[in-house]
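Entry 14. Structure prediction run on the chain below.
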Amino acid sequence: MKKTCFTNAIHRQLRPLGIGRGANDSGGGPDVIPLRMAGVPVAALYQDGTDYFDLHHTANDTFDKIDLADIQQNIAAYAVFAWLTANLDVEFRPQADAPEQAGTQN
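Output returned:
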């Protein structure tokens, strides 16, 4: 299965959750970049982060500020992604005979 088919399958399942299609350019962030560089596939399901740093790492960054609907959407989105990933016949990692692809994003 081609990568575009896989991303289309994910998008079809996430759309009813109110999740739009991204740019398919996940980098992984500083804690995951070494894994991506080693050829491990990475993915990111981004939520609206416009107010993320209003509370992040402040004294007011407490559980009572969490929006239950946002958490439920995240849980549903990652469950769909994990299920599809586990059940589709897709090889995400570069093949051993193509080492020049080891640092590319999938």
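The chain has a mean pLDDT of 79.
Filed with the rest of this week's runs.
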